[in-house]
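Final report, Chapter 2: Outcomes

The project's central promise was a pipeline that accepts a single protein chain and returns its three-dimensional structure in a standardized token representation, suitable for archiving and comparison. That pipeline is now operational. To close this chapter, we reproduce one record exactly as it appears in the project archive, with the input sequence first and the structure output second.
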Amino acid sequence: MVKAPDRKEHCECCGSSLGEPSSVDHRIVEEISNPAPRQVINYPVYEYTCPACGSSTVSRHPECPPTGRFGRNALVQATILKFMERLPHRKVTESMMRTYGLMLTPATVLDVTWRAALWLRP
């Protein structure tokens, strides 16, 4: 599945016309949903260079995560298994593999849950 972002027409800095993207990058993200199986989504990321001021402008799909290779639902599910079900990191990886066929490492689960704890802190 490919989800392309809207193309940028004008520079965010000076407002001049951008034309075609100077480069196109691809972010491959694995996402889960119930009851459907795991999905692999290709998000093209367009990068433009302004011909007038030389600044760089990036266009990415709103659902594309800025970092990592897992989608929102996968990250939320890992966090729920860790905090609500009180599973250790190793058991979270086993549960994600068994339920969704999604391969995570215990270190990835630690990173995901650590970031979630920072976001949820008052």
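Archive annotation: The CA atoms of residues 8 and 115 lie 31 Å apart.
This record, like all others produced under the grant, will remain available to the consortium after the project formally closes.
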